[in-house]
């Protein structure tokens, strides 16, 4: 069947994309994909788009055999092998393989966050971060472990979880050779060697190696103002602001 006469909804047998005329725009006849009705201004653009439907990947890397639908994607991929990073940040001189990555990086300097959550109005610098965040509202966990069927909101979290099954610990401390399943665990561990405590209390200036310890510590300051005493003795119902005080109090019942 000739390409020009391919009916709407029917894929052409050839590798070229089907097109459906839909009138003219700017003096040129508009072309539409016969599968999804998306509009294009040129036959070549329509043909490239049609690979989304056929799965065709005609551009192959000669180094690792990975295939791509578009020549531009192959060109970008080849920079992984060559180490070429032609996109340079004018502020910090960090280099990137893709212009899009540089544009995203620049937002760390400008603090621009153009992607806003429509639910809670929280903003993000990249669209992928917004997509991950939205799952906290929807409860969606599309990444499932094939071993125990536990689900996760992010592919990276699933990858990390899988190491609990495989026992893989690819991140090794160069100081003591202890290994960890995640890079974040290694970074926290390294602070034991360096003495780094990047999380500081703004009230008393005490510092901590992890943010969770700082949050726990801040509650101790807050309770001096609120009078909150969340730890209750199960024996006499007396309440305490801190778990340590309750533990000490319980000994009076045991010794008595």
Quick overview:
The protein is α+β, with helices and mostly antiparallel strands and 256 residues long. The radius of gyration is 29 Å and the shape is elongated.
Give a verbal description of the structure:
By secondary structure, the protein is of the alpha+beta class. The chain has a domain at 47-84: Classic Zinc Finger (Double Stranded RNA Binding Domain), CATH 3.30.160. Helix content is 39%, strand content 17%. The chain is built from 9 helices and 17 strands. It has helices at 43-49, 51-54, 71-82, 99-110, 127-138, 155-166, 183-194, 211-226, 243-255, and strands spanning 19-25, 28-33, 39-40, 59-60, 67-68, 87-88, 95-96, 115-116, 123-124, 143-144, 151-152, 171-172, 179-180, 199-200, 207-208, 231-232, 239-240. The strands form 8 sheets. Strands 1-2-3 form a 3-stranded antiparallel beta sheet, with helices on one face. The chain has a two-stranded antiparallel ribbon with strand order 4-5. Strands 6-7 form a two-stranded antiparallel ribbon. The protein is elongated, with a radius of gyration of 29 Å. The relative contact order is 0.04. The model is unreliable at 1-17 (pLDDT under 50).
List its salient traits.
17 strands, 256 residues, three-stranded antiparallel beta sheet, 9 helices
CATH class of the domain at 47-84: Alpha Beta
Number of strands: 17
Main β-sheet description: 3 strands, antiparallel
CATH topology of the domain at 47-84: Double Stranded RNA Binding Domain
The best one-word shape is elongated
């Amino acid at each position: 069947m000739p390409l020009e006469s391919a009916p709407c909804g029917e894929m052409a047998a050839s590798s070229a994309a089907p097109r459906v005329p839909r009138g003219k725009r700017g003096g040129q006849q508009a072309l539409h994909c016969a599968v999804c009705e998306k509009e294009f201004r040129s036959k070549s653009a329509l043909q490239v788009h049609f690979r989304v439907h056929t799965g065709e990947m005609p551009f192959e890397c000669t180094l690792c055999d990975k295939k791509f639908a578009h020549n531009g994607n192959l060109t970008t991929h080849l920079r992984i092998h060559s180490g070429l990073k032609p996109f340079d940040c004018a502020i910090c001189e960090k280099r990137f393989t893709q212009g899009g990555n540089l544009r995203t990086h620049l937002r760390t300097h400008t603090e621009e966050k153009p992607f806003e959550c429509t639910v809670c109005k929280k903003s993000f610098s990249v669209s992928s971060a917004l997509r991950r965040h939205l799952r906290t509202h929807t409860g969606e966990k599309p990444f499932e472990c094939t071993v125990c069927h536990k689900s996760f909101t992010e592919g990276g979290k699933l990858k990390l979880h899988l190491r609990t099954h495989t026992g893989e610990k690819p991140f090794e401390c160069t100081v003591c050779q202890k290994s960890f399943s995640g890079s974040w665990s290694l970074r926290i561990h390294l602070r034991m060697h360096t003495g780094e405590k990047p999380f500081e209390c703004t009230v008393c200036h005490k510092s901590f190696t992890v943010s969770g310890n700082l949050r726990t510590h801040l509650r101790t300051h807050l309770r001096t103002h609120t009078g909150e005493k969340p730890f209750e003795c199960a024996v006499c119902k007396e309440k305490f602001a801190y778990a340590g005080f309750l533990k000490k109090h319980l000994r009076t019942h045991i010794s008595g």
